[in-house]
Design a protein that fits this description.
alpha/beta, seven-stranded mixed β-sheet, 5 helices, 26% helix
């Protein structure tokens, strides 16, 4: 798997050594950033980080800080190894916990509106509208929440944000909210 554009464009990252992760494909990642643009100067949250590819792509394209959440310890070690290879110690934070635990942590109760871009790529069977809606509360004004899901599923209905675009890429779909 490779990073598509930006300062790390063309660099290859290792995929997690497990079948439990479904990395966002290069095609879908490219499409995501074609729609939202470069996250230059933004703080980005990569929820359900998996391979870390979406967050690494955001960092490569100019995000000032990327926070990633990954619960699987084996997968998190792979993300950390890739971050070291990319020398991303300057602006990459990995939270080793579930998204639900991250949302419940006391540190998340203050200064909620801090992300210009949130990428949520949960395992399709774990797509939870309530959790996604709670993540949306962390968007800054004008920020974008991107939810990756199966193409046969309709876009999640979220109360605090509005669906502005829905794109299908084979078996995957992206829903964009503001």
């Amino acid at each position: 798997m490779r990073i598509l554009a930006g300062i790390y464009g063309g660099r290859v990252i290792d995929q997690p050594p497990t079948r439990s992760v479904r990395p966002m494909s290069e095609k879908v990642r490219g499409a995501l950033f074609d729609v939202v643009g470069a996250p230059a100067g933004l703080t980005v949250l990569d929820a359900y980080a998996g391979s870390g590819a979406a967050g690494f792509e955001a960092a490569s394209r100019g995000a000032t800080l990327v926070e990633a959440i990954e619960a699987n310890d084996r997968v998190a070690r792979n993300i950390e190894a890739n971050a070291r290879v990319l020398a991303l110690d300057w602006g990459y934070i990995l939270h080793r916990m579930t998204v639900e635990s991250w949302l419940a942590a006391p540190a998340q109760q203050e200064n909620k509106a801090r992300y210009g871009l949130i990428i949520a790529d949960p395992p399709y069977q774990q797509l939870d509208d309530d959790v996604l809606g709670r993540l949306a509360n962390f968007l800054r004004l004008g920020g974008v929440l991107v939810v990756s899901h199966g193409s046969k599923r309709v876009s999640p209905m979220l109360e605090s944000v509005s669906l502005v675009k829905h794109k299908v890429y084979g078996d995957s779909a992206l829903s964009f909210y503001k």
